[in-house]
Specification:
This protein has about 525 residues and is α/β, with parallel strands linked by helices. The protein contains 18 helices and 17 strands. 5'-O-[(L-methionyl)-sulphamoyl]adenosine binds near residues 10, 11 and 295.
């Protein structure tokens, strides 16, 4: 098994500040990156911003700024949000950076040398919010006018001289590649969607430029100074420019191919069709996996700035806390399905799963350590006395491996909660308050040590999902180091056999009264 793990998020358009939808991909990517680090992998977690194109140029004009000044002013709002949400990215790439611009130009030249591009007249439509070309056959003709088939917003009709990338002849190869699983497209419904698209459409060569007379905010083509690079063609290349293509051969060899591209379902086609074809033509390996997640919706509409229905993550985090927000997004819906964001559902999860199940388990256990043993972990309990929870606690890591391999964050969290709830039930069954009245305290000690071991396992396994909570719980248990620095290989049952001192603090999740 390779020791490296390279994962990416999409590059976010900087036409507006980030919302819940953007934060979703980065939180999922962060949980995955932290999980892989705990599995002992060396991780490259890449995120960044998509800064060129008509949409950003238009937004900068509306803001009365130059495009460069405008993008510089928005990028910090992404970086600040990622910091606030504990996103542990290793690299942040901006498409306006020199390292990226040079790679894009190198790709242009390589395609040109190989005879893979040609100039022709483009006559059709363009959707600025989606930054997508549409042909006459694809658009929706409604009484409001000619609309984008994806977002149903009005299209611009365009007639331009552009460069095209020959992709049509790769259709059959791509279908075979997707079918064979050589490039995994998940969930399965999305794989079917890609295959369905390829079966039903003749792949049209891809337009990869815009005339400078129409759009100046882009990477100039080294093949024609009158053209800039089409923003999608520019942005996709970030995945190889960030890891050294083409000049830093060692870095590139180390990280490529990417292990997973995390994307929203709306940008599946760009990643699962155009991108692998470009890689093939460049003689590069394909992504191992592309995972397309669902949308957070309000009512029945996708949350997006232009629909004016966005929820500000900072506002939610200010009231519920970062980890509750991360937990909610990852637990509430399977990664791949759509979900409705509502404060009621978040409050319900907070009070039920976090305050009642996890919070109470920690609070009750630590309170009993204080009450019966003066805040110390009871000593004299041998590790050999495997109690009823040990097998479940140790088995948890295997289930997590299984679900995280499928990026099933929700089920992975459900498995952790099974253990937490099993331990809560164990308290009821073993009635420690009665055991405390017996002359022989060994049975009480065994129960408490067992519960502490479960809490340690919970903190450890929660650390990719809720890093601050895991740290806080770990500290309250009197543990040293940090869960994020403790590889999963050290499962650590028996950590409390030498006793120790707990450091009980305020409840982790005080209930929210409605
Ligand atoms: N810039 C392109 C991506 C280029 S990647 C080489 C782009 N940017 S975006 O800012 O519009 O969207 C980025 C990601 O955010 C997409 O994966 C999209 O699905 C996701 N989301 C935007 N709104 C969303 C929701 N309401 N819910 C979940 N994710 C959604 O596309």
């Amino acid at each position: 098994m390779p020791d490296k793990y390279y994962l990416t998020t999409p590059l976010y358009y900087v036409n507006a500040k980030p919302h819940i939808g953007h934060s979703y991909t980065n939180i999922a990517a962060d949980a995955l990156a932290r999980f892989k680090r705990l599995q002992g992998k060396e991780v490259l977690f890449l995120t960044g911003t998509d800064e060129h194109g008509q949409k950003v140029e238009r937004a900068s004009r509306e803001a009365g700024m130059s495009p460069g000044g405008f993008t510089d002013s928005i990028v910090p709002s992404f970086k600040d949000l990622w910091q606030r949400l504990s996103i542990s990215y290793d690299d942040f790439i901006r498409t306006t950076e020199k390292r990226h611009v040079e790679t894009v130009k190198a790709v242009w030249l390589r395609l040109h040398e190989k005879g893979e591009i040609y100039k022709d007249r483009y006559s059709g439509y363009y959707c600025t919010p989606c930054e997508t070309f549409w042909t006459e056959r694809q658009v929706l003709t409604e009484k409001e006018g000619i609309l984008c088939p994806d977002c149903r917003r009005p299209l611009d009709q365009i007639e331009e001289e552009n460069f095209f990338f020959r992709i049509s002849r790769h259709q059959k190869w791509l279908m075979d590649t997707v079918r064979s699983g050589e490039m995994l497209v998940l969930p399965e419904t999305r794989q079917n969607e890609v295959l369905g698209f390829l079966e039903n459409n003749v792949l049209q060569d891809l337009c990869i430029s815009r005339p400078k007379s129409r759009l100046s905010w882009g990477i100039e083509s080294p093949v024609s100074p009158e053209h800039v690079t089409y923003v999608w063609f520019d942005a996709l290349i970030n995945y190889i420019s960030a890891c050294g293509y083409p000049d830093d051969e060692n870095k590139f060899r180390k990280w490529w191919p990417v292990d997973v591209h995390l994307v929203g379902k709306d940008i599946l086609r760009h990643h699962a069709i155009y991108w692998p074809i470009l890689l093939k033509v460049l003689d590069l390996k394909l992504p191992r996996m592309i995972f397309a997640h669902g949308w957070w919706v309000q009512g029945r509409e996708k949350m997006s700035k232009s629909r004016g229905n966005v929820v500000d993550p900072l506002e939610i985090v200010g009231r519920f806390g970062v980890d509750a927000y991360r937990y909610f997004l990852l637990r509430e819906i399977p990664f791949g399905s759509d979900g409705v964001f509502s404060e009621e559902a978040l409050t319900q999860r907070f009070n039920h799963d976090l305050a009642n199940d996890l919070g109470n388990l920690a609070h009750r256990t630590l309170t009993m350590c204080e009450k019966y043993f003066g805040g110390r972990v009871p000593e004299g309990v041998s590790l050999d006395c495997a109690g009823p929870l040990r097998r479940e606690a140790e088995g948890l890591f295997a289930s997590l491996d299984l679900y995280m391999a499928k990026l099933d964050f929700s089920q992975a969290l459900a498995e952790i909660w099974k253990l937490i709830n099993r331990a809560n039930k164990f308290i009821e069954e073993s009635t420690p308050w009665k055991l405390a009245k017996q002359a022989d305290l060994l049975p009480l000690k065994k129960v408490l040590v067992e519960l502490l071991e479960v809490l340690r396992t919970a903190a450890h396994s929660l650390s990719p999902f809720m890093p601050a909570t895991a740290e806080a719980l770990w500290t309250q248990l009197g543990m040293e180091a940090s869960p994020a620095q403790t590889p999963f290989a050290h499962r650590g049952w028996g950590s409390f056999q030498k006793g120790g001192k707990i450091q009980k603090a305020a409840p982790l999740f005080p209930r929210i009264e409605k």
